[in-house]
Write a structure and sequence with these properties.
It is a single chain. The chain is 28% helix and 17% strand. By secondary structure, it is an alpha/beta fold. The chain has helices spanning 18-33, 37-41, 75-78, 89-98, 116-127, 150-155, 157-164, 190-195, 209-220; strands at 3-9, 43-50, 69-73, 104-107, 112-114, 138-140, 143-144, 185-189, 225-226, 235-237, 274-277.
Length: 278
C-alpha cells in the first residue's frame, strides 16, 4: 500500500450537516480514484470516527460508501483527550496514522473535495516507480465555496471541483503555510509521522496544527513541497456555518512545549479502539 487518505470526523451536527459533508468528500474521492489504475490499487481511505455515540459506518446513509476503513474511537476513550470541544483532531489524526497501511499519509478535512489534477499527479508518480517513502512532506491551501453553492457541490462534487474550482477564491487569499493558511491537504511519509510523533497533542482545539508541524520541519531542516507550485489548488472546502462556542481555536502565537512520548495517538487505549471496513 502506497498512500493513505486520512480523515477525522464525528457523527454530529457540528457547523451544519457534518455527515453530509463527510460523505460528499468520500464519494468524490472514491469516484475519481476509479479513473487511475495504479493509484486505486495502491491507496486506502481511513476515516477516524471520534467520540460518536453512533458511528457513521453504522448508518444506512453511508451504506453506498464502500472500500473505506473506519477507526472508531468511542466516547469512553475520547473524553480522556478532549479539551477544546467534543473532537480533538490532533489525537484523531494521530490514531489514524498509527493504523495507516500506506507508506505516505495524505490528511484531509471531512469537508474537502479533491480535484482530478492532484490525483493524476499521484498516478504519474506511481507509474514512473517513485519511492513514496522518499517524497517530501506536501501541503496546499484550499478554495472556499460560498453559501449559495452548497447544494451544487454536495449534489455533483466531482463536476464542481474540476470545472469550477479555479474560479473560487483561496481561503483568506493565502498560498503559503502560515497562521492564516487553511489546509486543503497535508501529507508526509508515514515513517516521518511516526518519527515526529505526529501532531502536537496539546493543540486540542481547531486550527494551526499544521503550522506547528511546519515549524518543527523548519527546525529539523526538513523541506516540504507547496502543491500550488506543482498542480495548483484544486482542494475545495464545502461551505458550512462558522465555528460555534463548543470548540476553541488553538493559539498559534505561542505553542505549548511538546512532551509527547511514544504513547502518542492514544496508544494506551488501543484495545478499546475498533476498526470496521465497509
Amino acid at each position: 500500500m502506497e498512500f493513505t487518505f486520512l480523515y477525522a470526523t464525528r457523527n454530529d451536527a457540528y457547523c451544519g450537516n457534518a455527515p453530509q459533508r463527510m460523505k460528499t468528500s468520500l464519494v468524490a474521492l472514491l469516484d475519481q480514484l476509479q479513473r487511475f489504475e495504479h493509484l486505486r490499487a495502491r491507496t486506502e481511505i481511513v476515516v477516524v470516527d471520534w467520540n460518536s455515540d453512533d458511528p457513521l459506518c453504522n448508518h444506512a446513509y453511508f451504506k453506498d460508501v464502500v472500500n473505506v476503513k473506519y477507526v472508531i474511537v468511542p466516547p469512553s476513550v475520547a473524553r480522556k483527550y478532549n479539551r477544546g470541544g467534543p473532537v480533538s483532531e490532533v489525537h484523531a489524526y494521530n490514531v489514524g496514522a498509527r493504523r495507516a497501511r500506506g507508506k505516505y499519509i495524505l490528511r484531509l478535512d471531512q469537508d474537502i473535495v479533491v480535484g482530478l489534477r492532484f490525483l493524476q499527479h499521484l498516478e504519474t508518480l506511481l507509474s514512473v516507480g517513485i519511492d513514496v517513502q522518499k517524497m517530501p512532506p506536501m501541503w496546499c491551501s484550499r478554495r472556499d465555496t460560498p453559501p449559495h453553492l452548497y447544494d451544487a457541490i454536495v449534489e455533483q462534487p466531482v463536476a464542481f471541483v474540476n470545472q469550477l474550482a479555479h474560479r473560487l477564491p483561496l481561503w483568506c487569499g493565502r498560498v503559503y503555510l502560515n497562521g492564516e493558511g487553511a489546509v486543503g491537504i497535508f501529507g508526509m511519509p508515514t515513517a516521518l509521522w511516526h518519527e515526529i510523533h505526529g501532531y502536537h497533542e496539546a493543540l486540542t482545539g481547531w486550527g494551526h496544527m499544521e503550522v506547528e508541524v511546519a515549524k518543527r520541519f523548519e527546525e529539523r531542516g526538513v523541506p516540504w513541497v507547496n502543491l500550488h507550485d506543482v498542480v495548483g489548488c484544486e482542494f475545495v472546502h464545502i461551505w458550512h456555518p462558522v465555528h460555534g462556542a463548543e470548540r476553541v481555536m488553538n493559539d498559534e502565537s505561542s505553542f505549548p512545549p511538546r512532551n509527547q512520548t511514544d504513547t502518542w495517538g492514544c496508544l494506551v487505549d488501543t484495545d478499546a479502539i475498533t476498526e470496521k471496513v465497509c
